[in-house]
Amino acid sequence: MRKTKAEDNVITFIIENQENFYRLAFSYVKNAQDALDVVQESIEKAIRKKDSIKDNQSVKSWFYRIVVNTSLDFLRKNKKIALVDDDTLDYFRSGKQDTYEDIDLQRSLEQLPITYKSIIILRFFEDLKLDEVADVLNENTNTIKTRLYRALKLLRVEMNEMQ
């Protein structure tokens, strides 16, 4: 079976951005193996649905949407609480470094509802533009702006309470 141009574009995009997709999946599922499973399942879905891409410019938001939805599906199916994965636990057990630069931010982010958390992750950790975030989450850009403002406000309140 011969690969199509759409399939070549999808595969090239995935290979070039694989670390970003793993990081995004991990931010949802909080486990290294589960994140790899989510990315693998997302790639399979993308290859099966490659013909639904309308133009090359939408590949980015199209695939991010697949990863986000696959991560959320995984969480719904498993409904388990994954506090940390083994690597993270070993890191904190080792006590080699006493720097806690982002731990408050990470804890505060975990307290946000998933709709707000998704926007923060996509906008600031994945560096997507607001239009791209809206496309990934299948929402209006103005809705994303409003939710981002609300999420940042909640994050600020949460971080202030931790101090």
TrEMBL record:
Which residues belong to any copy of the RNA polymerase sigma factor 70 region 4 type domain?
Answer: 104-155
Q: Which residues form the RNA polymerase sigma-70 region domain?
A: 16-80
Q: Which GO terms describe its biological process?
A: DNA-templated transcription initiation
Check the record and name the Pfam families matching this protein. Sigma70_r2, Sigma70_r4_2
Gene Ontology terms for molecular function: DNA binding; sigma factor activity
Q: Which UniProt keywords apply?
A: Coiled coil, Sigma factor, Transcription, Transcription regulation
The residues forming a coiled coil are 29-56
| InterPro entries listed in its UniProt record | RNA_pol_sigma-70-like, RNA_pol_sigma-70_dom, RNA_pol_sigma70_r2, RNA_pol_sigma70_r4_t2, RNA_pol_sigma_r2, RNA_pol_sigma_r3/r4-like, WH-like_DNA-bd_sf
Write out the similarity annotation: Belongs to the sigma-70 factor family. ECF subfamily.
* Protein's name in the database: RNA polymerase sigma factor SigV
Supply the source organism's classification: Bacteria, Bacillati, Bacillota, Bacilli, Bacillales
Which gene is annotated as encoding this protein in its UniProt record?
sigV
